[in-house]
Each structure stands twice: as C-alpha cells, then as structure tokens.
Amino acid sequence: MAFYINTNQQDCSREISVLLKKCILSYPHHWTDLVFLCIGTDRVTGDCLGPYVGHRLSSFCFPGIYVYGTLVQPVHALNLCDTRKKILSRHPDSLIIAVDASLGQKKHLGYVTIANGALYPGAAVHKKLPPVGHIHITGIVNTAGMLEQLTLQTTRLSTVISIAEQISNGILLMIPQSDFRQTL
C-alpha cells in the first residue's frame, strides 16, 4: 500500500492523517509504542525535512509515542545504526514510522508518500544504510537525476518547510484518534 499526496492541495494534512492511520491499522503485528524516526541533517537544506518534522512533533507529549531525530539531535548517516539499536532496545514492541526527505520526478515535487514497509535512507545519494521502519513517510523535496548531493544542498528551504509542516500537521491530526493504538 503506497500513497502520493500533493501538499499544494487544500486539506492535504487531513489526507496525510487518514492515509497514515490506514497504514497503521493494516500493520499486522502487535505493538505497544509508536516511534517516529525522523532522518536527515540540518546541515543540508534538502535533507532537513526529517529533523524539522521531529522538531515539531517533539514539542508535544503523547503517552506511548516517541520521537527520534530533531533539529537539535538529528539522526543521520553517522548515527543511524546506533539510534536504530537504541530504539529496538528501548522500544522492542514498537511500530516505527520513518520520515525522510527524498528526490523524485519533477511532476511529484512537493508530494508526500506514505507506504508500508521499510525506508532506505540515503538511497538518493547512493549511501548504503540499513532499511528502517515498518511504515515510511517521505517528502519529495527536489528532482532526482544527476548530482543528487548538490541538488539536496541547493533545495529551497521554503519547499522543505512547507512539506514538513503538512507532514507534521497530518501526524498531529492522526495522533488524538487513539483508537488505532493497541495497548497504549
């Protein structure tokens, strides 16, 4: 199950909320904690979507919901493996939702994708990192093609923030609808 949501459309946060909840409800295993793993770095404009979403989510406190990866403490290529181990140790029965920026086709610029299955962080810049998450959310911040690292470095901050705001708002709309949480 994979969904594309245009963040330029009205009420896209509500659509993100509904579709994320749909993915969570379709997850077949029992879980007790919900973990948002927000991946990226604040040192590259196009890659700060995950930390910005984490920053927004971390300013709220919901029981049984945890956030890793913020602007102050980002989760990136250098600490992803250690953070992943920490999450599995602290939250062994968690449902992990990975959030990251991505590059895509020009027609999908500004879209959010939500899908079941692991996220492969760093794939756009040809990094070999372990897959993470049971569900993933990506924001398509720029176009893929040549010179991906330069593309991420020259991505407009306004594009990243706009997409991250819609993702954050969608998640925050979904969380109070706690009937999907199995034991929280």
TrEMBL record:
Q: What is this protein called?
A: Spore protease YyaC
In terms of superkingdom, the source organism counts as: Bacteria
Keyword Protein biosynthesis listed? The answer is: no
Listed GO biological process terms: proteolysis
The record's annotation in InterPro entries points to: Pept_HybD-like_dom_sf, YyaC
SUPFAM superfamilies noted in UniProt: HybD-like
Q: What is the species of this protein?
A: Blautia obeum
Q: What gene does this protein come from?
A: yyaC
Q: Name one GO molecular function term.
A: peptidase activity
Sorted alphabetically, the keyword list is: Hydrolase, Protease
